Amino acid sequence: MRGQVAIAGAGCVKVGEHWERSALDLAAEACLKALEDAGNPRVRAVYVGNAASELLNEQGNLASLLADALALESVKAVEVRAGDASGALALHQACLDVLAGVGREPILVCGVEKITDVLAPEAERIQMLFEDARSTFHSGVTIPGLCALLTRLYMERYGASYEDLVALAVNDHKNAAGCPHAQFPFPITVEAILNSPLVADPIRLLDTPGFGDGAAALVLAEADEARRLNDSPVRILASEVVAGRMNFCEREDPLTIPSLREAAKRALAAAGLGVKEVDFFELHNTTSVVGALALEELGLAERGEGWKLISEGRIALGADWPVNTMGGLKGRGHPWGATGTYQAVEAVLQLRGEAGKNQVNGAEVGLAHNMCGLGSVSCVHVFARWEVKA
Amino acid sequence: MRGQVAIAGAGCVKVGEHWERSALDLAAEACLKALEDAGNPRVRAVYVGNAASELLNEQGNLASLLADALALESVKAVEVRAGDASGALALHQACLDVLAGVGREPILVCGVEKITDVLAPEAERIQMLFEDARSTFHSGVTIPGLCALLTRLYMERYGASYEDLVALAVNDHKNAAGCPHAQFPFPITVEAILNSPLVADPIRLLDTPGFGDGAAALVLAEADEARRLNDSPVRILASEVVAGRMNFCEREDPLTIPSLREAAKRALAAAGLGVKEVDFFELHNTTSVVGALALEELGLAERGEGWKLISEGRIALGADWPVNTMGGLKGRGHPWGATGTYQAVEAVLQLRGEAGKNQVNGAEVGLAHNMCGLGSVSCVHVFARWEVKA
Predict the structure, then answer these.
(1) pLDDT at A3 exceeding the cut of 60
(2) Rounded Cα distance, A89 and A200, in Å
(3) pLDDT band at B134 (very low <50, low <70, confident <90, very high)
(4) String of b and e for B57-71 (b: at least 16 CB within 10 Å)?
(5) pLDDT for position B271
(6) Is omega for the bond preceding B202 within 30 degrees of 0, making it cis?
(7) Lowest-pLDDT choice from A136-145, A218-227, A248-257, A283-292
(8) Which of A344, B216, B247, B350 lies 20 to 30 Å from B324 when distance is taken between CA atoms?
(9) Chain A touched by B249 (CB under 8 Å)
(10) Model pLDDT, residue A390
């Protein structure tokens, strides 16, 4: 990618338990907001990222239904699926569609998930369908259970305490408090986390994302077209998708996320930037240990030292490397297939200077990482203010 | 699209009841065949089309698993989903990836479905998840049930008999008899159809596709690159995806498939061809009536006269407009997410002159239509011999 794609509009619904609304309702609201933000252009395609609507909501084919609900006649409708990386994957596919030069009109991208139609244990079962059934699903382990194994190993090998790690969840909640669309917009303390119920030793409830419903949408176009629609379009300098070994026990080192490392390397190269030139980071912190690993894979910390950036507060707003500026998975919420598009919407807010009290001063470039499970697929996007060119 | 994408390799497994093999096994076999056909190039991405593996096989995330199974390190992995149009949709997205110019190495595309892990009533339930739950799923109607309504209306309005229509199923089985990968490689008669069990009046069992497992794969590349890999690459002159009103009762006329009409119009325009310049057609004949409607939407017959082309045998091999040259949904089989890629593999065989006794003499251009349900999404591809340029 050479910076020819830009975001002309963005919108989202508040993450939460939307008992009275369907996945389609949520998606349509987010899309209408994004379209309005872009001046209600005519679009030629709808891309939907969704992890599991057939299982959660007994309704598949959301892309076609959404086109119909929005009264878009004869547009292209595409649904992509990569578990909780579906949102960013939809964004990637839409970028390719713009770059392919098959049409000039803008494209709508929507990530959506309605999880609360099922009970939590069923949601956990469904989440595991995106792991390898042969080695994990049928063993009964859950995502927090897998994270517990990683956390134990990380603490033992690198000398970090659980308190050191969960400072990331504290950071997320602090930022979520200033985010209008966050599911949990209130601060929490390390003590509160340590006193919350044990989910999978040592992981505590307040170190895991809750289940929430949500939808976030974007209007994409070729850069000059985006500029015609919006005075402050946000550039997508890079969009990379890389698959990795699904089971971390089969990786060379379980405390690594090779798909993230490779995707970030490619994305930064495409953007022509070093990681330390990025002003903020939206990370896929399934639990705090994953955030520590991500900081290492991005090259912000040496192997085994990501936890120090966290525990020393160097990832806070106003510090060296602001992380999860609108709350991340823990604070904003993690509606699987929508998370990647929420990250993009939040990057748009930061880069247009509309992030309110969570604004990263002078933010010019942001990076987002959205992944499936614990790294079977990683999507990395680099976003920039209109004035920044790759 | 301006003809810059071509197919450098193709392969598939025989459609059937593969009790002893997983979706991943089938996909891997098809991919290995396609890769071998292209000279085993290094690929940079894997696209998978699959309708419902989480529900059918308790295993999602097939694209990432497939990359791993094929020992493809750090490639892009993308899964797309549009019910039984998933295969052609994966092909479309892979075409965009080639055209976007983000990489030179070829791309692997695989459509796969393993249906027989569940019993037929559950398969029928899952199939309906791609229709609108608000109006059809919860009413208990099935796809053959919807086709029965269309068939009754078609017969009444246009004066066709059921015998006239099911001549398409007879055509399909006749062609399937010469197809090495067909699920039902034997001829049937109109009498056999009329004597087979009633599924949904007037639809008979032998007028509906069976449930079968299968996988078909392609290696795509930019045209010149494809030519370096294979002496006889097949060009993709056009790839169009269009969404339409899901419920046919909400269409202006229920006896239409507007998504097909529009996709075919765009595809033929992109290819610079009239429909009568196409040498053969792979159609998505869920039941025979849908084949009649498709002939009308393509412009091969006037509205209400598609059945005449069928009953007069003008769609046979060697006749005016050969349809479903390798058996179509009825004869080759219809493994949902794989069907679109089977159509493409069959087009490759025809255009390379490798279709054996089913060869369409002098075939230069073929068109394939793959759709979700009864037209909520239509994908139309136009394929051509290397020597033909758009």
Answers:
(1) no
(2) 30
(3) confident
(4) bebbbbbbbbbbbbe
(5) 95
(6) yes
(7) A136-145
(8) B247
(9) no
(10) 65
d(CA B34, CA B171): 28
Domains of chain B: 5-118+212-234 (3.40.47.10), 143-207+235-383 (3.40.47.10)
- Bridge partner residues of A235 (DSSP): A6, A384
Other beta carbons within 10 Å of B19: 9
Distance from CA of B383 to the nearest CA of A (A): 17
Chain A residues closer than 8 Å to B244 by CB: 64, 74
End-to-end CA distance of chain A: 9
Residue B390 has pLDDT above 70, yes or no: no
Give me the residue label for tokens 């997508």.
Answer: A236
What is the per-residue pLDDT for A87? 98
What are the chain B neighbours of A244 within 8 Å (beta carbons)? Answer: 64, 74
Q: Is B88 a residue whose pLDDT tops 60?
A: yes
Residues of B in contact with A241 (CB under 8 A): 76-78
Paired tokens of B246: 């899901």
Mean pLDDT along residues A329-346: 98
CA–CA separation, A209 and A123 (whole Å) = 13
- C-alpha A251, offset from chain centre: 23
pLDDT at A140 over 90: no
**In Å, what is the CA distance from A381 to each residue of A67, A341, A384, B278?**
25, 11, 10, 42
CA B43/CA B75 separation, integer angstroms: 8
| Residues B297-319: tens digit of each pLDDT | 999 999 999 999 999 999 999 99
String of b and e for A300-322 (b: at least 16 CB within 10 Å)? bbeebebbbbbbeebbbbeeebb
Q: A81: which chain B residues are within 8 Å (Cβ-Cβ)?
A: 60, 79-81
**Token pair for residue B244?**
């339409």
Secondary structure class of B339 (helix, strand, coil): helix
What pLDDT score does B73 carry?
93
Q: With contact defined as beta carbons under 8 Å apart, do B242 and A75 qualify?
A: yes
DSSP string, B113-157: E--TTS-HHHHHHHHHTTS-TTTTGGGT--HHHHHHHHHHHHHHH
Please, which residues have CB within 8 angstroms of residue A210's CB and are 6 or more apart in sequence? Answer: A183, A184, A333, A334
Contact map slice: A 253-312 vs B, CB within 8 A:
258-259, 262
Q: Rounded mean pLDDT of A286-300? A: 98
d(CA B299, nearest CA chain A) in Å: 18
Phi, then psi, of A308 in degrees rounded to 5 = -70, -40
Q: What span, in angstroms and rounded, lies between the C-alpha atoms of B145 and A60?
A: 19
